[in-house]
Amino acid sequence: MVEQGKVDSTKDFHPAPVWLDEAYLEPILRVQKKDPGLRITELEIKPATAKGDNYASVMTRVKVLYLNAGAKTPEVGYYIVKTTYENDPFASEIFSGYQVSTTEMLMYDKILPQLSALIEETRQPEQVFAKTLHVDYEHDAIIFEDLAITKHVLADRLAGLDLEHARLSLRKLAKMHAASAALNERQPGLLTKLDHGIFNRHTKGFAPFFENLVGVAADFAAETPELGENYARKLRALREKVMEYTTRVYDPQPEGFNTLVHGDFWVNNMMLVYGEKKEPLDLKLIDFQFCSWSPPAVDLHYFFNTSLQREVRFEQQDALIQYYHTVLVETLKDLKFGGYTPTLRDFVLQLEKGKFFAVTASLTCAAILTNGETTDADFHALMKEDERGRRFRKLLYNNKSLRENLKYLLPRFDRSGLLEVTD
Amino acid sequence: MSVSDLISAFDAIPKIQAVTPDVPASVILDAPEWLTEGYLQNTLRKYYSDQRLRIDWVKVNPALGKGENYGGVLTRVKAQFTRSDGTSQLGHYIVKSTFEGDEFAQNTMEPYDIFNREMEIYEKVLPKQKALLLEIGDTEQIFAETMAVDMPNSALIFEDLNARGFVMPDRLAGLNLKLARIVLRKMAKMHATSAVLNQRENHCLETYDRGFFNRYTENYAPAFVGMFEAATRRVAQWPGFEATAEKMKSLVPMYMELGKRIFDISPGHISVLAHGDLWTNNVLVKYDKDSGEPEDVIIIDFQYVAWGSPAIDLFYFMNSSLEFELHRDQQEQLIAFYFGIFSDTLRRLQYQETIPSLHQFHQQLHQKKFYAAHVSMSVFGIHRNVETENADFNALMETNQRAINFKNACYQNPITSRVLRELLPVYEAEGLLDADQ
Known about the structure:
The structure holds 2 protein chains of 2 kinds. Chain A is an alpha+beta fold.
């Protein structure tokens, strides 16, 4: 099935924004470099992500050569321009329900800079986010520094993070969460109004994706001797409940700790800097389209079940939770947060309350996020009820790693009652 | 010659059937003074409703050794008697009575009121629970049948399950999966029937609020906190555990309060009449003669029943009485197994309140998980103690040097040490060693 204006799916699919040219970028750079006489001499544009790396937006890498006023040799600047699926009506209609660009623009424009300022006030300040260059409300675009230039790279999403990387990520996350709680305390309502996460009470646009994949998981269970018909039956019954049960995890808990969650906290939304001996030195979080005011369980269960090496995921979760909690509490204290600070025990219980999201993430998100078969890996294939879509989703479950992990996890989810339909 | 030698000597005497002129003399060794042949004859006459029943001989001796029971005196009775229709019978009984003559023990245990409670439970509560099971066609036997309840003497007389082939499992070994599941099945039915009984009879079970931790007394603190402090001393010796030992030390002032919160009723949680002391020694097992496989289980010793969370029994049992691998790795599966039977029995008995989903139940138990840590750290060591020389009530409950030495010795046991080594990191990571839980 070929749609008008679409490229053949075997070639790279890159709907670059048409307005992105020298005329557009020059005024922006002039402001940023504080040089009204700046001139762009060369502009190179190419896709920033490969298929399978990003389903929710279009990323364009821009290399700009420019001459400062009176200079002879050009300087070079590297940026990422992030835009929506504006050429793709199917995708853009669904995404508009999630207000992704509104959320992200608000984040880069107003919120992240304030969070960064707060983290600077703490005893152990560090940078957690990439620096914004420009937010363009008219074109729904965000331009920020290309972290690749300062040697930031993506981690290997197929292998997953080891313990050291996991701790580094969680340290940054804990600071973001703590700073957000403090920011909302100082400006009440600023962050609590964000409520368009991947699961939210306004739209169920992504439902076909989640429900279909739970169905595929049920088929997988049926044909796996170690699992069998019992699990298949439970998963089939869970199919029509997965959206509601997961959305409940996102609802702010009146008696729990809530904060601004990242909402898509997985390995591909982190950029790392490595040292000479390949040790991770620093990490920045990117991609703030799905932030919402929710319990931290949203980020933690998602992270644990999409981004870790198997042994870390299965053996070290408790230690990681404890570490995250320590950083969270220390940062809240530094920021003189006066609101509810959970004890470790409280926090563990709150995570357990939101544990259903671990099920969703393991059955659905883990499938796409650890997928190695990138030929058909795009938004349409995830969502559509056509032959291509069905084939792709079934293919996702051929992933050996995924299968092994589910054989281990499904019995564990089952025995704490997480696969039951309760209402 | 020791008492046990004497007993073995008597056991070697060939059994003589009744109605012979040459009847052996009755032997009563080391028993409560009111436990005479005459007393037993009266009891049997009442039980069998036969005023002309006549005892031919009795043999009475202590039932347990040191370190096996801190909660009272158990006396084994073998009685040969003839009924009014001329038939002869050999009966086996256990008489359970209070500690006599030990003032310290009596004073310490007094606020827990264990003897009166147990008699009340056997007389009034357990028979009703049995009736509830019969209502739904379940004839499974969960506890021993009572022969007599003697309030004035604070004594209970049961059929001696030993004679039916029930024995105490190896206290030092830990139960295997098959046995654990049998126990949990019975526990689930006990709990479910108690919840229904409480509902039908106007909340009558809610007055049982004097379990091991309660809001009336801290008399057992020297045992619990004393054992915990001994654990802390042991852990402090291990490289890499210094920080853990420090955390444990800081927990000491909060320890009793954290235990009491387990026994407090949490709103919205399902409540049951918990056994309160459900471990290996309070479980009698019938093993198959040929295969050696466990076939059935009877639960005994209802001195510490308390109305509250099923966690009281579940965490106590699973953290004291299982083989190591089950203790460390399989508790969630066992809870799910228990819950299937628990919820099913509640439904069949048409329990009128909300039955939680498994995940809700899981979360409710999770809130009481300090008890799991308490049992693993402080109670396990008592149960698995191998130094029986000094294993008595005083060593457990006092704070003098002898008592400290006894508790330290408990932690020399390699199994007890292993439990600490492998489970403390888990408890710590879940915040269960934090003073501000």
